[in-house]
Structures are given as structure tokens and as C-alpha cells.
Amino acid sequence: MKTRRRNYNADEISDKLSDLPDFVLIHILSILNTKQSVQTCILSKRWRNLWKYIPVISLNSFYFKNIKKDFTKFVYRFLSLRDDKSTLHALKFLREGHVEHRLLKRVIKYAFSHNVKLLDIHMACNLNPFPLSYFSSLTLTSLNLISERQIGSPFTVFPNSLNFPLLTHLSIKNFGFHSSGDGEDCYVDPFSTFKSLNTFYSTIELTTPNLCSFDFIGNPSQKLTGGNIRLSSIKHVNIKVSSMDGWSKFERYPLVLLDWLVELALTESLTVNSTTLKVLCLTPNLWKVDFPYLCNLKSLKIDIVQCSSIPKEAIDFLLQNAPSAKKVIIKSPKKSFNDYRRGRFGRGFYYVGDSLVH
Q1: What ranges in 58-116 are assigned the alpha helix state H?
Q2: Per-residue model confidence as pLDDT tens digits over 8-30
Q3: What is the H or E stretch that residue 179 is in?
Q4: Bridge partners of 26?
Q5: Nearest to 177 by CA among 198, 149, 151, 205
Q6: How many angstroms separate the CA atoms of 2 and 24, rounded?
Q7: How far apart are CA 61 and CA 227, in angstroms?
Q8: Average pLDDT, the chain
Q9: Which of 18, 121, 124, 314 is placed for a possible disulfide with 280 were both Cys, Cβ 3.0 to 4.6 Å?
């Protein structure tokens, strides 16, 4: 039996789409780039105002020939004409080249005034302080920030304190941090207010030639780098992995930890807890790894809690190039997260839970 194939023209397809309910059409428009969503207003009267209600905004300068003029004008125009009472779930702003300060502030202000949940900003900006510091949000759950910069140019400074209590996901790239306090009390702690944070992606680049100590408490998920040189000034390292619970999704932690030890190769004093050693043992084929580092190590301190076991394999691995280093085992009572947060580590850099401190 032969079937007759019917050819639909563009008008018929458009009519069929127009028959769909508004919420379906708005969902379709939300998948498109926002410029493309707006362009659908010419299809028919039915489509004329649908773009004003999209809950997902994607403002991308890639779709504009004249970025400084056309893209900027489009963003201002779109934000002013979008329905002010419509829900805003997510906003993505991508601006090639250097973004105008006024435009960036306008976008961020619009996002927070409309209770955005997911905010993604990719731009080049040397605006300090970064506009986020002027706002708070009780709805934001995910924040992704990328600041493009040329080699040698200053970092955009990440705000020292932000009020995003529901934030669970944070990803940042090419941001610097300003320290608070003086002398022994000098530190950086920009993430301490993120009480709900459970995912943090970033590369920690330390450009501090006078830094003498590095203290870390948490889970090793971020790459550590000293730029073009090893972190040669750091002589005292303290790494305490907090927990191995629910690690099935984080197979990269052992390799990240091993990478840290390479970057901190010239340290003279290394303190770890038993969990850190257990993580190190999870490195695939640990003893087959080429590891000509930690040659200057003079002491290895192992902090164990109550009856924690100590993986001998990891200890031998750390001491393979410094066999004369002094090994000390410290037995400590079980500490809570707040005990670590209140701790003093002296002048250096440390990471507590989901916060960086310098």
C-alpha cells in the first residue's frame, strides 16, 4: 500500500506552531538565543509579544556585527521591554572584548531584581569592586563567572563578602582576592557566607612570592598553580581532607591532590591527616607515578583522629625522595567544622570547607 507524502510549506508549519499553547511556545523561545527569540515577533500577531515572557535569557554578543553599538543597544532595549512581572529563571551574559561598566551593572541589577536563580557572566572587565558586591539575593542557586584577561593585566577582584545564602554551585575563573587584616591576621575569606555551597569549580593561582605557608581544609577539587614558576616560597604545607563520604562522583580528587604536591614540591614541612593519605592511595598505580619531588622535606606530620588507620603506602610515597625527614604522628580529638573555622594558621593561605583564606 502506497502512502502519499504531503509537503508542508513554511506558512503551514508556522500555523501549526501557532496553534500550540503559550507556555509551550515560550519554552521553545527560551531554548533559542535571545536575539533569535525576539526575531520571531515578525512571524505573526500571535508571536509578536511572546518573547517578552521567556524565563531564560541568553545575551550573547557573538550574534552582533557591531558589538559596542548594536549589542549594547539590544541589551538595554530588551531588558526595558521584557514583561516586568514574568519569572526569570536564568540569565546568561556573554560579551566578547571589554564590557562597558554601566552595561554590566544594568544586567546584574536586572537579574537580581527579578529573583534570578542561575546567573552566568562571561566578559572582560577590570571594574573593581566587581558589581556583584552591591547586591544580595535570596533566590540565586548557581553562579558562573569568567573574567577574560590578558597576561600581565590586573585581575578583576572578587568581592570579599556576598549575601547569597541559597547558592549551591559556584564557578569562577580569572578573579583575584583582596586580603583583610594585617600581619599575622591577614586572610581572605570571600565564601564564608555561602552556607549552602556544595559545588565549587576554580583554578587557584597564587602569585604571592612572599607566601610562606599553605593550609587547606576541605576536599581537593580545584587545580593549584603558581603560574610560570613553582610555589618556591612556601615552606610549610598543611593539607587536611575533610571527608571521603559520597566520593563516587569525584574520582579526580586523588589526581588533584597529587598535582598539589607537585606544585608545592619545595616545601620543608608537610602536615596531613589520615584522610589525606587515604585519598592519595586512591591514585591509580601510585608507585608507577614519576614523582621526583619533596626532596627538601625535613618533617612529615600525620594528624590522626582517635583510632584512624594510617596508610603506610602513602607515607612511603611522600618520603621516597627525603628518607631522612622526621616523621611525627599527632593524635587529635575529633574536631567539628566550626573548630577549624575558628583556627589560626598564621600567615599563609588556607581553604576551609568552601571558603578560601589568605
Answers
A1: 72-81, 101-113
A2: 555 555 567 778 888 999 999 99
A3: none
A4: none
A5: 205
A6: 34
A7: 30
A8: 80
A9: 314
